[in-house]
Amino acid sequence: MVSTEVFEEFLPADIVKSSAFVGVFHFENTYWPVVIPSRRKSAKPHECLVTIPKPILVQLADDEDKFPLYLELWQSCYDYGHKFKKIITNKSFASSGIELLRIGNKALESAVAQCLKGGDGAIESSRLAIELFAKSILAIKGNYNKEQLSQYDVLLSNSLQFLTYECRQIIKNDNLDQINLHMVTVMRLDGQSQKPEDVRYAYTLAQHLAATAVNILSE
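RE: above sequence
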């Protein structure tokens, strides 16, 4: 269930309430909401950009560089939106891991909302989401307890790469390998930056990790 209060200023309430997830994609100097409907058959990529004018949608579809990036992001939003709820209700998973997922989801929603407002704060929220989703993998798949996870406190170590590297040690996953390669760049970004290329980089990585986490936990 998408947080209505988070997105009500950007989208009609009925759209938010019928959504499995709301992500965001940057194109033509604008952040566009990517709305994944709860009904799987309704989630066609071009229809999920519910606020984009048709001429700009056509322009995106014709863009050989940006459209594949949109499809990748859409797939991450789709996977995350349709698997998150099922995972957090799985009683066989460690409660600490589920709580990390819940807080990670809030951080991810905050990053999306901050993007839609212009990007202020989105990098820090994206970093927090990355930290929490990585820790959820360690808690659920690696049976890490809170004391063990505290070793990877990003606020203390200032490095997300330790977390994603540790995830790679317990789970063999190509997406984790690719995400880990980008961690140094994410940590070097100015957390206060509102440059679209910086905000897009951080949020996209957080979104892909969120999707990777729920895909791993669904296996």
